[in-house]
Amino acid sequence: MSIARASTVAAILAVVSAAHAQTPSAAQDTSRYRDLARRVVQTSAAVKPGEVVYIIGGSHTIPFMEAIGTEVMRTGAVPVMTLESQSVIGAFIRDLPEQNLRSYDSLTTALASDQFKRADVIVMLPVLDNPDTLFATLRADTARMAKMMKTWSASQERYDAMRNNSRARLVYLNYPPTRTAIAGSGMDSASFDRMAWDAMTADYDRIAAAGQSIKRLLDSGKSVRVTTPDGTDLRFSLTGRSAAMTGATLTAEQRRAKLAAQRSITLPGGRVAVAPLESSGSGKVVVARDECLGAPLVNARFEVRAGKLAGFQADSGSACITSLLNSAPGPDDMLGMLSIGLNPAIKPVETGRGFRPWEASGAVVVAFGNNIDLGGKNNTPSGVPFWLSKATVEIDGKAVVKEGQLVTNVAQGR
């Protein structure tokens, strides 16, 4: 998987790919791909002549990859295309002999090191066509998952350092929509595609203004409180770590940033994330509905003590979360991140299976586990995020999100 480990392993094991991994809609629009590729290459990634651009995606994203590669070539840069396959990734999860896990990890980490050294830009498209089938495999074989996680833990620190020490600008493209996301939303494919496209082409200047407003408070703030009507009341401290604001473009300062999260673009995008003081978290978290590796998570609740997740319970999905927390030897149960969504064109759906995009305006996610890209200290290959419905977020007593909506002056960039 080499450099794509960032998209495949994280997508499979960090639980978020059910909302983010994408597959094509029924009708592929070639002109739309061409127009979007031009915007990505010329504006978002700002590719320059002579640069090396890695383009990574799944077999279902080939038309979009080709459009990006063509546009890269037109700039005078060098496109390097890497094709991933769900069936091959599935074979890695199910069939790679356990005695070869360590050597496989060592070789792919070495290959990733070479790629990170050479890449000026890395464009990552979805690699999984139907992640639910792989999720089911992982849920069914927790012993195998634990061995995989133990293997990755040995190289995780090196891998995170490679990402943070590289010069590469990272572009994550989550389009076109997946069948998983469409099914969860309860919308028909055409309507969902329109929403996704609107989110891709939203007013990113306005999104950036709102993000910078929150970022300033997080960068200079001392404490955060997160509450929900369901009973969440979580407090933690900030440490002066710079929050990462992801949108459609990078500033000159972001392009030079050491941390990978600061050099990242996501489309559809629009969110602010920060790594708090890991040991400072205290309080209670209640999650009405979410997912764990594609399975429903219902009425989850737990305490946070000195930043550590404790006493986890759920009416449904408890075994999945427990196996994730027990699978890695690293601090995957330590407070890792707060994320706040900014994009008004993406609408979450909490009925049925649900659709819970992190970038939706006012979306609040609290995650445990890996936060190295944000300047944190949790060295572990996994993470467990929790979507908090109708959350209120206060930074030093000032509300920036209230009951799942950005506060008006924040939304207006003030």
Task: Explain what you see.
The protein is of the alpha+beta class and 414 residues long. The chain has 2 domains: 2-200, Thermophilic metalloprotease-like; 204-246 and 270-411, no CATH class. It has helices at residues 5-13, 17-20, 30-44, 62-75, 86-94, 101-118, 131-140, 142-165, 179-185, 189-200, 204-220, 252-255, 318-327, 408-411, and strands at 52-58, 78-84, 121-124, 169-173, 223-227, 233-237, 244-246, 264-267, 271-274, 282-292, 295-305, 308-313, 335-341, 364-369, 383-388, 392-395, 398-402, 405-406. The strands form 3 sheets. The chain has an 8-stranded antiparallel beta sheet. A 5-stranded parallel beta sheet has the order 2-1-3-4-8. The radius of gyration is 20 Å and the shape is globular.
What are the key terms here?
414 residues; alpha+beta; Thermophilic metalloprotease-like; 2 domains; 8-stranded antiparallel sheet; 5-stranded parallel sheet; 14 helices; globular; disordered N terminus
Name of the CATH architecture of the largest domain: 3-Layer(aba) Sandwich
| Most strands sheet | 8 strands, antiparallel
Strand order of the largest sheet: 12-11-10-6-5-16-17-18
| Class per helix and strand makeup | alpha+beta
Strand content: 15-25%
- Low-confidence segments, given as residue ranges, are 1-28
CATH homology-level superfamily of the largest domain:
Thermophilic metalloprotease (M29)
Radius of gyration: 20 Å
Treating each run of at least 4 consecutive H or I residues as one helix, how many helices? 14
| CATH class (first level) name of the largest domain | Alpha Beta
- Beta-strand segment tally: 18
